[in-house]
Design brief:
There is one protein chain. With about 90 residues, the protein is an alpha+beta fold. It has one domain: BolA-like (GMP Synthetase, Chain A, domain 3, 2-Layer Sandwich), CATH 3.30.300. The protein has a three-stranded mixed sheet with strand order 1-2-3.
Length: about 90
């Protein structure tokens, strides 16, 4: 299983996400100093009721907490959009 799939499955499971999409953008950063060690660059859209009542910063901290192990070596950069189901439906 590749890194992107593992990250996507872990977030989906731990956040009980109704929608999740993780895009591996590592190829856009070839030769980048932080990527030389193998850490990837990812962008994610995550929709979860777990984000309700949380600020954007709190929701992002929740995600980073879930990915703490991956952030050590597998992930160099991780940008995200965190949405509640209501916010997702309004888009």
């Amino acid at each position: 299983m590749d890194r992107r799939t593992r990250i996507e499955e872990k977030l989906a499971r731990d956040l009980d996400a109704s929608h999740i999409e993780v895009v591996d953008e590592s190829h856009l950063h070839a030769g980048h100093e932080g990527a030389r060690s193998g850490g990837g660059h990812f962008q994610a859209t995550i929709v979860s009721a777990r984000f309700e009542g949380l600020s954007q910063l709190e929701a992002q901290r929740l995600v980073y907490g879930i990915l703490a192990e991956e952030m050590v070596e597998e992930v160099h950069a991780f940008s995200m959009t965190t949405l509640t189901p209501a916010q997702w439906a309004a888009r």
